[in-house]
Amino acid sequence: MSKKYRMIHDENLCIGCQACSVACRSENDVPDDIFRLQVRVETKGTFPNLKMDMRRQSCVMCEDAPCVEVCPTKASFQTSDGVVHIDESTCVSCKYCIVACPYNARFMNPVTKAVDKCTFCYSNRVKKGLDPACVTVCPTDALVFGDISDTSSEVYKKANENNLLYPKAHLGTKPKVAFVPNKRGVSYE
């Protein structure tokens, strides 16, 4: 039975330190000036009534991935456990997938000349039973990863203890990355 990988970003625990982004860069040899993942800080309100939201920006591993649908060479594909990948050897750099991605999560890698994105560190960590690099370095445990169908997993427990939101859920892409919305600070919604 295939695993159903999920990642949850708890905005209440995230401090915006960028350790996840640095770990990703190091683990995956991400070239300078581009990123597979980043935490963006959004400040709302007027001093002293401020609210800071920490928003993770990365591939959300859509179940119904528009990037996979538009790829003319099938370089963008999805594994049986739902992780979206790019085969650099068959990518022709047409950029259709970059345009199709509603999450702005794909980019041209200037070294490989192929499209690149977050992979959940699938081949270099997850297939070996390890968590993605970003999860292992988070000092506040704001990131949780695992098999959502495993009722003893931390990701299952976190999902059942919180009201999760999915980025751009209205698009129907069914992301595998969810977040626990920030409840700290003044609400301006």
UniProtKB/TrEMBL annotation:
Record InterPro entries: 4Fe4S_Fe-S-bd (IPR017896), 4Fe4S_Fe_S_CS (IPR017900), ET_IronSulfur_Cluster-Binding (IPR050954)
Domain 4Fe-4S ferredoxin-type, chain residue ranges per copy: 5-34, 48-81, 82-111
Keyword Cytoplasm: no
The keyword Transit peptide belongs to this UniProt entry's keyword annotation: no
Lineage: superkingdom: Bacteria
Coiled coil: none
Keywords assigned by UniProt, alphabetized: 4Fe-4S, Iron, Iron-sulfur, Metal-binding
Protein name, as recorded: Polysulfide reductase chain B
